[in-house]
């Protein structure tokens, strides 16, 4: 960030909001809206004609829908991880990417939520999952069920992420408000910034709030994918019934989430000329996390295979060694697709040159997300398509156009939201960047000579009561 | 709320702001507030503000969530409508830990954010007097409350001598009112903001 002053930071980050969006923005936005509309039509078919619009069948009760659900939830983990865990670990570099990553989290969780909701079929009865006294026979929801835990986990996660994101945005929206020169913008950003003034007392509370929310979000983000993994792990289905699911799912979620952040950041820094804020250093740091979590996921795959043999349970053995690892079994292709995308290819990030290459990064981030989609597909479909009873083994499952359309629709929702966010909100945390600039910018470092040259006694005297 | 008279001094450097805060306080003036574009660590202590108790409130909201979850679930599954799930005990605490945890976090987060908004009087459609438009951009704006005896000219030159790049006198509302920022109904007539 060199020698930028505070005003320059404001200029750089707020300018894209005030400028007219580029042609590229319009093209991307309209494609996203088109996908969203197609998704809405796919959902309309599903609600009007029923879940029969999808190719789910006797043993494959969960197919693309839950695969997509877990995939989106997983992606929704990186934002809070970057904001919360890296805040607690005092990783200064997070500041460049946290705001956009949090927004991405929120949109990803919104997309994820669509799948279980519309999978209900009779969606107008969705409120049955809420625990309240009623007259429907067994009066309450089952609090011992992992599926209900999931309802609580996802809705809490969404709420807390939203609060965390928005409370961080308030001061930055006030910055946009105070330099707005059109009436409409002054009005809307004025409403959105809640009358923020920048009072020292307010900042003090704001700091306290951010820190506690980060502290709360850290175990929360770990708990959410743990609970998603319980949806599988507490069952007795071979391939699901494993104790390593929680850490394995969490690592996978961070893996895919960081990959999605990479995809978006590489685009944002280019489109909005923010190479000085989202630097190669950021990209490299995230690639390091990708290679780490990808390898953790790889170890989990190998552990599962080993246990499939070591347990000497023939159902487990069949699932792992035939339905998954045998390339020529019906879904063997998806297992090896997963292995190639998630475990083998990210290993190129052991090389510094590759970690710092924008094109390789973008390409790999897409590959990783394809791989993580395969992972969920493998877990769900290869475990379900052949159960304990061979007579009920299903025919080959492949999705209908409406199942695919629903998935495409969530891409539409995600990117529509993200394009709007990128246009109307500061994509980088302005106030936080200013703070970082103050403590680690070049201008600050160059002025250290004066302080370093002081006699020790003066320094102690001046800083005795500072924190 | 009543309007009050303030002397405003704007600083563009933190290194100047801190000694200035110290000087102004030593001289016996009452600092109404300092508006800054980002959280300036240590400024709250320099101004003599006490620590916030917001995190304590968060803790209380959290344990409220814990007890709400445990209380409700155990009442529902043990007393109100006991169901037999595969012969497991009605009071099956381990299975309730996930929801208990989630509600703890939910209550703490929602409660804290609402408390934060209440304490700082933040809400949509709330409007406040802003002493300087650049307080959210790059200026540290020190606002000193005047009494009947305050000589504003003296105070302004005192602030300038302490390093303020811009000083002025404003009569302003200290509370908030409902309004939007596209209409200027505040008393800017005394101020003379210079935007570089």
- Number of alpha- plus pi-helical segments of chain A: 19
What percent of the residues of chain A sit in helical stretches (DSSP H or I)? over 70%
How does the helix and strand content of chain A classify structurally?
Answer: mainly alpha
The tally of structural domains of chain A comes to 1
- Reading the helices and strands of chain A in chain order gives HHHHHHHHHHHHHHHHHHH
Brief account:
Chain A is mainly alpha-helical.
Structural key phrases:
heterodimer; A: about 475 residues; mainly alpha; Formate dehydrogenase/DMSO reductase fold; B: about 200 residues; alpha+beta; Alpha-Beta Plaits; 4-stranded antiparallel β-sheet; two-stranded antiparallel sheet; 5 helices; 6 strands; elongated
Protein model, in words:
The complex is a heterodimer of chains A (467) and B (196). Chain A contains 19 helices and no strands. The relative contact order of chain A is 0.17. Chain A has a single domain, classed as Formate dehydrogenase/DMSO reductase domain (Formate dehydrogenase/DMSO reductase fold), CATH 1.20.1630.10. Chain A is mainly α and 467 residues long. The model of chain A has no long low-confidence stretch (mean pLDDT 88). Chain B has two domains: 3-49 and 124-178, Alpha-Beta Plaits (2-Layer Sandwich), CATH 3.30.70; 54-119, no CATH class. Helices cover 41% and strands 18% of the residues of chain B. Chain B has helices at 14-26, 43-46, 54-80, 93-119, 152-161; strands at 3-11, 30-35, 126-128, 140-145, 166-173, 176-178. In chain B, helix 3 (54-80) runs antiparallel to helix 4 (93-119). Residues 186-192 of chain B have low confidence and may be disordered. The chains are: A mainly alpha (467), B alpha+beta (196). At the A-B interface, helix 1, helix 6, helix 7, helix 8 and helix 16 of A face strand 2, helix 2, helix 3, helix 4 and strand 3 of B.
């Amino acid at each position: 960030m060199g020698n930028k002053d505070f005003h320059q930071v404001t200029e750089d980050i707020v300018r894209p909001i005030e400028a007219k969006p580029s042609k590229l923005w319009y093209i991307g936005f309209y494609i996203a809206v088109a996908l969203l509309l197609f998704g809405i039509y796919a959902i309309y078919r599903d609600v009007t004609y029923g879940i029969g619009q999808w190719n789910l069948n006797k043993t494959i009760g969960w197919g693309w829908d839950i695969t997509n659900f877990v995939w989106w939830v997983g992606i929704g983990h990186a934002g809070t991880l970057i904001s919360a865990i890296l805040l607690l670990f005092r990783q200064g570099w997070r500041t460049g990417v946290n705001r956009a990553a949090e927004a991405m989290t929120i949109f990803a969780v919104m997309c994820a939520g669509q799948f279980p909701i519309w999978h209900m079929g009779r969606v107008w009865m969705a409120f049955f999952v809420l625990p309240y006294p009623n007259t429907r026979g067994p009066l309450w929801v089952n609090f011992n069920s992992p599926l209900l835990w999931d309802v609580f986990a996802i809705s809490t996660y969404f709420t807390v992420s939203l609060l965390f994101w928005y409370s961080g945005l308030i001061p930055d929206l006030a910055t946009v408000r105070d330099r707005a020169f059109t009436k409409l913008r002054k009005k809307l950003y004025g409403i959105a910034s809640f009358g923020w003034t920048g009072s020292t007392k307010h900042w003090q509370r704001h700091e306290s709030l951010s820190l506690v929310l980060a502290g709360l979000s850290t175990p929360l983000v770990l708990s959410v994918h743990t609970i998603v993994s319980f949806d599988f792990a507490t069952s007795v289905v071979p391939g699901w019934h494993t104790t390593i699911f929680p850490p394995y799912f969490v690592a996978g979620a961070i893996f895919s989430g960081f990959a999605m952040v990479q995809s978006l950041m590489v685009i944002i820094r280019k489109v909005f000329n923010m190479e000085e804020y989202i630097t190669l250093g950021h990209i490299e740091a995230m690639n390091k996390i990708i290679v780490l979590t990808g390898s953790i996921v790889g170890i989990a795959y190998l552990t599962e295979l080993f246990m499939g043999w070591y347990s000497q349970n023939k159902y487990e053995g069949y699932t792992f060694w035939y339905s998954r690892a045998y390339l020529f079994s019906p879904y063997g292709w998806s297992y090896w697709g997963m292995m190639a995308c998630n475990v083998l290819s990210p290993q190129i990030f052991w090389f510094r040159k590759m970690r710092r290459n924008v094109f390789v990064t973008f390409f790999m981030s897409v590959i990783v997300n394809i791989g993580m989609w395969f992972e969920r597909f493998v877990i769900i479909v290869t475990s379900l398509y052949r159960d304990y009873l061979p007579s009920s083994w299903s025919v080959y499952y492949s999705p209908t156009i409406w199942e695919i359309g629903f998935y495409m629709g969530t891409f539409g929702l995600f990117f529509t939201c993200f394009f709007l966010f990128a246009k109307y909100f500061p994509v980088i945390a302005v106030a936080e960047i200013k703070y970082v600039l103050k403590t680690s910018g070049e201008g600050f470092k160059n002025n250290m000579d004066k302080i370093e040259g002081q006699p020790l006694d003066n320094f102690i005297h001046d800083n005795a009561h500072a924190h | 709320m009543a309007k009050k008279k303030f002397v405003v001094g704007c600083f563009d450097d933190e290194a100047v702001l801190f000694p200035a805060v110290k000087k102004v306080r030593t001289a016996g003036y009452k600092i109404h507030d300092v508006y800054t574009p980002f959280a300036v660590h240590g400024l709250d202590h320099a101004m003599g503000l006490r620590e916030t108790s917001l995190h304590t409130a968060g803790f209380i909201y959290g344990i409220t969530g814990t007890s709400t979850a445990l209380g409700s679930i155990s009442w529902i599954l043990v007393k109100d409508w006991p169901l037999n799930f595969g012969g497991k005990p009605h009071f099956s605490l381990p299975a309730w830990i996930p929801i208990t945890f989630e509600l703890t976090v939910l209550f703490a987060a929602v409660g804290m954010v609402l408390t934060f908004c209440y304490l700082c009087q933040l809400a949509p459609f709330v409007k406040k007097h802003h002493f300087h438009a650049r307080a959210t951009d790059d200026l540290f704006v020190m606002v000193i409350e005047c009494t009947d005896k305050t000589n504003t000219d003296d105070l302004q030159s005192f602030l300038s001598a302490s390093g303020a790049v811009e000083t002025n006198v404003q009569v302003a509302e200290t509370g908030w009112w409902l309004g939007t920022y596209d209409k200027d109904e505040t008393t800017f007539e005394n101020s003379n903001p210079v935007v570089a």
